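User: Show me a protein chain along with its predicted structure.
Assistant: Here is one chain, sequence first, then structure tokens.
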Amino acid sequence: SDISNIGKALDDGWVITFPQGTDGTIFLLRHNGRCTVGESRNALVAGGSGGIGEGIVKALIGAGYRVYVPTRPNDKSERLKAFVENSNQLALVAADLCNASDVESLRQTIEGDEGQLDAVIVSVGSRYFGHRLHRMPRSDWDRSIQDNLSTHFNLQHEFVDLLRRQDSGVY
């Protein structure tokens, strides 16, 4: 599938996932009939400065969304800004998604700016290409757990209830 259609898919109420290790193909998991996208369209793209994530960001901006992207120091946010041609629809927010208080602050920032969030797209995770599992250094294991599990937990903890309170939006 072509990621340029992601904005329309969200408007139609589809929940979208990008399984780890795919070639960028969009998988539409299920239709969420409760999704209503209003005049103001806002999305959070966690992992928006990564390879697949930056394509999602550009597609959403092209579809008229204001897109929030959490960033860490030394990430690829400058490349992302150039990729979306310095769009004023891109909002970079400093947040380490492994840190629960940073994710809470991210939610508060978005709520304060917009009042409503229409979509949360999570395109985060990392892979480990080193030693075999039984020889993996503990620090690499801990980082893998943080990147691949804790980020998802922290995001769901802050944003799923927000979407439920709004009675709209997709995660």
